[in-house]
Amino acid sequence: MPKRRRAALGMPKPKKNVRKESESRADSSEFEYGIPTKRDYQRMHPYSSFAVKDDDDEAHFFRVGNNALIVPEGCNPEDRLELHKHWVGKILEIRARDKDPSEVWVRVQWYWAASQISSKLKGKLPLGRMELLHSKSEDFVHSTCFQGLADVVSFDEDSVTQQYIDGETFYWRFEYDPAKERISPKTKLKASCLCKLPYNPDDDDIMHFCISCQKSYHESCLDKHGSIENESRNSDDLPRDIRFERILGVRYPKQLTSFSESDYSSLPQDLLRLARSPIVRGGPEHGVAGNVFPIVQARIYIHDALLEHKPIPDNWKDEVSANLSVVQAWIAEDNDYLCPNCHEVI
Ligand SMILES: [Zn+2]
Ligand SMILES: [Zn+2]
Question: Nearest-CA neighbor of 32 among 99, 108, 97?
Answer without folding.
Answer: 97
